[in-house]
Specification:
The chain is an alpha/beta fold. It folds into two domains: 29-146 and 270-298, Rossmann fold; 149-269 and 302-329, Response regulator (Rossmann fold, 3-Layer(aba) Sandwich), CATH 3.40.50. The protein has helices spanning 3-26, 43-58, 78-90, 101-110, 149-161, 177-193, 208-217, 230-234, 236-245, 255-259, 272-285, 307-312, 319-322, and strands at residues 30-36, 67-73, 95-99, 116-121, 140-144, 167-172, 196-201, 222-226, 249-252, 264-268, 301-306, 327-329. The termini are far apart. Mean pLDDT is 90; it is low at 6-25.
Amino acid sequence: MRRRDFIKAIVGSSVAWPLTARAQQDQRVRRIAVLMNLGSDDPQSKVRIAAFIQGLQQLGWTDGSDMRIETRWSMGDPDRARRYATELVTLAPDVILADGGTTVGPLQHVTRTVPVIFVNVTDPVAAGFVDNLARPGGNASGFTLFEYAISAKWLELLKETAPAVTRVAVFYNPALASGRGQLSEIQAAARSLSMELRPVDLRDTSEIDRTVVAFASSSSNAGLLVTANSLADVHREMIITLAVRSRLVAIYPFRYYATSGGLISYGPDLVDPYRRAAAYVDRILKGEKPADLPVQAPTKYELVINLKTAKALGLSVPQSLLSRADDVIE
C-alpha cells in the first residue's frame, strides 16, 4: 500500500470508530423502573401504565426494543414499598417512575442519585422530595396531585349535595404529611360550615367496617369524606359498598370512585400525568436531570355524580350541582 493511501485508511478508521461507538451507545437498551402504589390486577394500574407506555411510544421508544420496563406493585403497603424500592434500585435503572408519595419516600431512602420522576404526589416540598417546585434540586421531579385547598372543596360539595348533613366521617392516613395536611383544610372548612368531623385512621382496615356502621347508626344526618391516599384506593370497593350500605352521603377524591358506585367524586385526572411523565422520562434518558425539571401541577379537575347511587340512597341531587358536573352516571 502506498504511504498516502495508508495514512488515509488510518484517518478514515479513526473517524469511523467514534461514530460507530456512539451509535452503539445510542442503541443500548434503557431500563425504566416503575413502582406503583396499587395492585397489578387493579384496573386503574393497567390504565395508568398503558398511558405511560403510550406516551413513550409517541416519543419514539419501544418496550422490548430500545427500552425495558421493570414494574413492581406495593398495594399501599409500606413494607412492600420499601422492599420493592430496594429491589428496583439494585437493577440499576436509568430512571424510575414513582406512583404517589408512598413510593417516592422509600425510593429516595435507597438512592439520591438514580433519577426519579413521580406522579400524583400531593406536597413534594413538605415531604422533602424536592427543594422547591421550580427548581427541585435533587434526584426527583414530576407531577403534583393537587393543593390541599381542594380538601375544603370536598366538604363544601358534600354540604351542597345534602344540606342536612351535619356530621362527617373523614377517612385519612395520619402517618402521611399529605393526610394531615388534607385533614387540616377539612377541619377549617368544617368550622365555617358548622359541621362535626369524625377522623377515621385508614391504617387499621379491620376496624373500618365497625367504626363506620357505629357512626352511621348514631345519626341520620351523617356523611363520609374520603381523602386522597393509597390505602383508600386499594380498599375503595369495600369503602364504597360500606358507604352505600350505611346510607352515608359520600364524596371521593377521584373519578374511578364514582364510576365504581360512589356517590360523588371531585378531583384531577389521574391518568393524564402518566402521559406527561413519559415526556420527563424521555428528557432524562436524553441527558437532562430531574433537578432542572420543574414540578408541574394538574391541568384538569372533574366533578362526577352517580345518580344511580343517589337514587339508592333516596337522595335528590340539586340541579345546580348537576349542571356543573363533567359527567353524570345514570
